Amino acid sequence: MFRYLIESPHTGEECLEIVKQVIAAGYATHFEWGCTAGTHKGWVILEAETEAQALLVVPAIVRSKAKVYRLNHFSELDVVPLHKPAREGE
């Protein structure tokens, strides 16, 4: 299983319906919301086998707007090679 961060934007008009659907699906305690701060987005971190499976937590009416990010952990030894400047000619 992989861990995913899902960002689910929606409009102010969609807000109440989206939150109701998330609650009805049983994910109320999984989501964090920015709506009361004027940012109509929900965020959730969950485990799933695939990105497509992870997206199923997002209500269908806004699923096409959602962004999914696969998460991973780095140790210092893992991250240093990823940020070395490329040598000319490589």
In short:
The chain is an alpha+beta fold.
Q: Explain this structure to me?
A:
The protein has 90 residues and is of the alpha+beta class. The chain has helices at 12-24, 51-55, 76-82, and strands at 2-9, 32-33, 41-48, 67-71. It is elongated and about 45 Å long. The mean pLDDT is 90.
How do the strands and helices of this protein lay out in sequence?
Layout: E1 2-9, H1 12-24, E2 32-33, E3 41-48, H2 51-55, E4 67-71, H3 76-82
Antiparallel strand pairs: 1-3, 1-4, 2-3
How much is the average pLDDT? 90
Q: What profile does the largest beta sheet have? A: 4 strands, antiparallel
Category from helices, strands and their pairing: alpha+beta
Radius of gyration: 17 Å
Order of helices and strands: EHEEHEH
Calculate the terminal CA-CA distance, rounded to whole Å. Answer: 34 Å
Number of strands: 4
The best one-word shape is elongated
Q: Within the CATH hierarchy, at the fold level, what is the topology?
A: Alpha-Beta Plaits
**What CATH architecture do you see?**
2-Layer Sandwich
